[in-house]
Amino acid sequence: MQNYERVKSDPVSAQLYTQRKPRKHQFEMQMVSEAFQMLPATEVKTVLDAPCGVGRLSLWLAQKGVNVTAVDLGESAVQLTNALLRDQKFKETAESQDIFNMRFEDGEFDASVCFRLLHHFQDSSDQQALIAELCRVSSQYVVISYFSSYSVTSLRRRLRKAVTGREVKQNPISLSQLKDLFAANEFRLFGTVKRSGFLHSLQLAVFERRSKT
Ligand SMILES: C[S@@+](CC[C@H](N)C(=O)[O-])C[C@H]1O[C@@H](n2cnc3c(N)ncnc32)[C@H](O)[C@@H]1O
């Protein structure tokens, strides 16, 4: 059973997401940019942005000339993404879909990007299911963010949990655990965006299909 309630899909959360701190937003978009720079542009023409949230990655990808498909469980997120794309005169649209059970063919996209979702899931069965679905629809690459297990913030949250018992909402995972989850779906590590895992919780990795078509 997926842990939906932990990842907010309501209108208020979607609206708040449009107001992220500019520095944080720019830092994150720089990471996304570095990840996509690793990929051969000739091989990556179609990209799935899941979940798209309020559309910042979808817009960035569309501006790069990529044919992007955007999905999110939240209707408000989908509406905001559509408005953003439409305002910028892009033909791409977002639709409401559950990332754990997407209505796409196997290998439908050259690549998929899943930014700021995995760390919301604590159960390894949810993590496995999410990664399996991303791998299923991606013929070549999956770009995925995760939270470093040994960042200052992760260590502080673990300490707080030990002291106060208060639940930690962000679930870190090590790169080697992530590699294992992808290996189970015939993907291997292609590269990582270099950021200190000690200083920064958010990390970004790129996986490639072992037998690319
Ligand atoms: C933290 S936001 C990240 C959005 C986007 N990737 C970004 O970085 O701007 C997480 C998003 O996941 C969506 N979400 C949560 N569970 C989902 C599911 N099962 N299927 C699709 N989207 C989901 C939420 O609606 C929310 O918009």
Description:
The protein has a seven-stranded mixed β-sheet with strand order 3-2-1-4-5-7-6. It has one domain: Vaccinia Virus protein VP39 (Rossmann fold). The protein contains seven helices and seven strands, in the order ααβαβαββαβααββ. The model has no long low-confidence stretch (mean pLDDT 91). By secondary structure, the chain is an alpha/beta fold. It binds S-adenosylmethionine. Residues 4, 7, 9, 51-53, 56-57, 72-74, 77, 98-100, 115-117 line the site of S-adenosylmethionine.
Annotation keywords:
single chain, 213 residues, alpha/beta, Rossmann fold, seven-stranded mixed beta sheet, 7 helices, binds S-adenosylmethionine
Give a brief description.
This protein is an alpha/beta fold and 213 residues long. It has helices spanning 11-17, 22-38, 56-63, 75-87, 124-137, 152-164, 175-183, and strands at residues 46-49, 67-72, 94-96, 109-114, 138-147, 187-193, 202-209. Bound molecules: S-adenosylmethionine.
